């Protein structure tokens, strides 16, 4: 167990170091100089202060210096707002994490329920619900977002169209405040979870159908064990592959958050990234790439670890 | 399901033929003097063979701003008075060409890379596999937003960018196929008779292993079109005055309640094209299995 953790930690850390180096190179090779904002007193003849990217030979040294600071979560100061990057990012990161957790919850709850239903009730010709899933899969997330916005926010006025809190003083108790946040999360959460939902539904369906065909399920059924208890066996065997799926879904969600957060004016990390790209604010861009990639690797490692704990076959292969 | 499948096939034929015939239908690049005011341009700007589609997607007409669908403008006009139908058609061409070119580029890089990695094995394969692993961990969309946010991209450079970012998918599939084919007797025979590596890859491995790669490429094409639309929606991607479906949705956002005819048609077209390439991939897959 300990050796397994150590091994995966080492190999993932190495990959992380390499991936961030690629990102670092790309950001500075693509980027170029940034004109720094000056406080007042701007004249055309005066040369504007410019931040110069490191040259190619300085790159590895600059990268290692940046990386060792980034590990301590020191990302320097933002070029456009002159504030420390970590103070700029972390409150918004929390908002984004909230949004992602909410949509992960929707994805797994909806996907597993739908998938189980389809695995049990699919006739030879295909369930009509399945065609619906195909259609949902092909809808880009911003199209779904615009549809939801125009129908539920602007026409019916059921849900708010932006932000994370209401500007309402009467909401004062913590409970009400949480409900208010949840109310604001619903539209962006649904938008963000649509494609993942289809993915998990298909995955659940195919893996459950495989298990339903297995001899041990046949044995249970032929002994006359009631369907509900058979379902318990099916789910117990079918649930573990999901743990690894989480590792694949999280990065897709973080990428999609840029679009959804911009559309819903959600004060999250994706919108911050987009604004930073337009302002060529390299410290912020690098910091967000760092955090995003860190999440990807953490997700991978956690899913590996869970797989190791729950699937005895992996343990045998290791020892 | 069958109806969905026929819709998808019909749509692909439609969009390909429209894209090819486009220069005969409407102007495909902005010409000098396209800004016009009112009645003078009503008949004068019909440059194409068919009078129906003679309207330029670039022609700005201040008197026809935000007009709902009518006899002159079948799908209405946007804030600058440009015809939505013409822009929708040209946007479809842009999206199709970018998706197709990017897929082609990704195949051109991916097939040789995957074939060499799978056939040579050893350190080349190890480096390749490690590279694939790293590539999947890259924050891809963030980097694409970064590159296209800083450079002004046109159609060609955007397809090259997407192709370079997307080559890993065909490469992975090609490698998997080559690993299987390597154990076949005819390949072993070719190796034993001293055929060169490139000869074997060219005449045996690529023709026999290309099927699943093409299936993956057609799914990937849907994905690349989606990425292009997403970039355009964020205001990056292809720059104005060229229309793009994603960008049209973005422009329509300012008139969410006022003028739904601006953003609904491109949304429908985007959905239909992504859906169609997905179905195309499934058809290819089924055809390959039934062979």
Strand percentage of chain A? under 5%
User: Which sequence of strands runs across the widest sheet of chain A?
Assistant: 1-2
Q: Please give the largest β-sheet of chain B.
A: 2 strands, parallel
Number of helices of chain A: 12
Largest interface: A-B, 51 and 38 residues
Order of helices and strands of chain A: HEEHHHHHHHHHHH
The overall strand count of chain A is: 2
Rg of chain A is: 24 Å
Count of helix runs of chain B: 11
Give the CATH topology of chain B: MetI-like fold
Q: What structural class do helix, strand and pairing data of chain A support?
A: mainly alpha
| Number of DSSP-assigned strands of chain B | 2
CATH top level class name of chain A: Mainly Alpha
Features:
heterodimer, A: about 325 residues, mainly alpha, MetI-like fold, two-stranded antiparallel sheet, globular, B: about 290 residues, two-stranded parallel sheet, 11 helices, 2 strands, elongated
Short description:
The complex is a heterodimer of chains A (319) and B (291). Chain A has one domain: MetI-like fold.
Task: Describe the overall structure.
The complex is a heterodimer of chains A (319) and B (291). Chain A has 319 residues and is an all-alpha fold. Chain A has one domain (2-34, 59-318): MetI-like fold (Orthogonal Bundle), CATH 1.10.3720.10. Chain A contains twelve helices and two strands, in the order αββααααααααααα. Chain A is globular. In chain A, 32% of the residues are buried. With 291 residues, chain B is an all-alpha fold. Chain B has a single domain (1-26, 85-291), classed as MetI-like fold (Orthogonal Bundle). Chain B is 69% helix and 1% strand. Chain B is built from eleven helices and two strands; from the N terminus they run H-E-H-E-H-H-H-H-H-H-H-H-H. Chain B is elongated and about 75 Å long. The two termini of chain B are 22 Å apart. The interface between A and B is large, with 51 and 38 residues.
């Amino acid at each position: 167990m300990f050796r397994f953790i150590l091994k995966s930690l080492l190999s993932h850390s190495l990959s992380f170091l390499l991936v961030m180096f690629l990102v670092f190179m790309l950001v500075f090779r693509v980027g170029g100089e940034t004109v720094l904002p000056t406080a007042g007193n701007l004249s055309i003849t005066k040369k504007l202060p410019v931040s110069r990217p490191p040259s190619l030979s300085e790159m590895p040294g600059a990268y290692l210096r940046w990386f060792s600071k980034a590990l301590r979560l020191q990302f320097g100061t933002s070029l456009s707002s002159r504030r420390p990057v970590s103070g700029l990012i972390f409150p918004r990161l929390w908002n984004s994490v909230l949004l992602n957790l909410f949509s992960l919850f929707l994805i797994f709850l909806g996907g597993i329920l739908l998938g189980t239903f389809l695995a049990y009730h699919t006739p030879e010709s295909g369930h009509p619900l399945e065609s619906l899933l195909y259609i949902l899969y092909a809808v880009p997330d911003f199209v779904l977002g615009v549809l939801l916005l125009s129908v539920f926010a602007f026409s019916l006025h059921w849900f708010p169209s932006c932000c994370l809190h209401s500007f309402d003083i009467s909401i004062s108790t913590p409970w009400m405040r949480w409900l208010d946040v949840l109310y604001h999360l619903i539209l962006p959460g649904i938008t963000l979870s649509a494609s993942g939902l289809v993915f998990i539904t298909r995955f659940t369906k195919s893996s459950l159908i495989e298990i339903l065909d297995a001899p041990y399920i046949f044995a249970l059924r032929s002994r006359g064990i009631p369907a509900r208890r058979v379902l318990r066996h099916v789910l117990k065997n079918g649930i573990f592959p999901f743990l690894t799926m989480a590792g694949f879904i999280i990065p897709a969600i973080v990428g999609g958050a840029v679009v959804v957060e911009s559309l819903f004016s959600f004060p999250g990390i994706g919108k911050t990234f987009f604004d930073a790209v337009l302002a060529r604010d390299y410290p912020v861009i690098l910091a967000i790439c760092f955090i995003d990639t860190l999440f990807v690797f953490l997700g991978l490692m956690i899913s590996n670890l869970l797989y190791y704990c729950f699937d005895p076959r992996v343990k045998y292969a290791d020892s | 399901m069958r109806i969905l499948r026929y819709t998808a096939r019909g749509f692909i034929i439609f969009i390909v033929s429209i894209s090819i015939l486009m220069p005969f239908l409407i102007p495909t690049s902005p010409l000098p003097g396209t800004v016009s005011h009112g009645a003078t341009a009503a008949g004068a700007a019909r440059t194409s063979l068919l009078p129906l589609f003679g309207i330029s997607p670039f022609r700005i007409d201040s008197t026809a701003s935000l007009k709902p669908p009518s006899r002159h403008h079948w799908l209405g006009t946007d804030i600058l008075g440009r015809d939505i139908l013409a822009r929708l058609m040209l946007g479809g061409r842009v999206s199709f060409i970018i998706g197709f070119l990017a897929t082609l580029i990704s195949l051109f890089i991916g097939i040789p890379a995957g074939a060499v990695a799978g056939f040579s094995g050893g350190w080349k394969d190890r480096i390749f596999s490690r590279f694939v692993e790293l590539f999947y961990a890259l924050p891809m969309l963030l980097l694409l937003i970064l590159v296209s946010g800083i450079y002004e991209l046109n159609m060609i450079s955007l397809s090259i960018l997407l192709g370079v970012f997307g080559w890993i998918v065909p490469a992975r599939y090609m490698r998997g196929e080559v690993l299987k084919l390597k154990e076949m007797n005819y390949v072993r025979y070719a190796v034993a008779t001293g055929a060169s590596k490139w000869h074997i890859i060219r005449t045996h491995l690529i023709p026999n292993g290309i099927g699943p790669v093409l299936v993956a490429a057609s799914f990937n094409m849907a994905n690349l079109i989606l990425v292009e639309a997403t970039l355009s929606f964020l205001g990056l991607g292809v720059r104005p005055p060229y229309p793009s479906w994603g960008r049209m949705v973005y422009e329509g956002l300012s008139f969410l309640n006022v003028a739904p005819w601006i953003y609904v048609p491109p949304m429908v077209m985007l959905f239909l094209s992504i859906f169609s390439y997905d179905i195309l991939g499934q058809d290819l897959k089924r055809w390959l299995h039934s062979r």
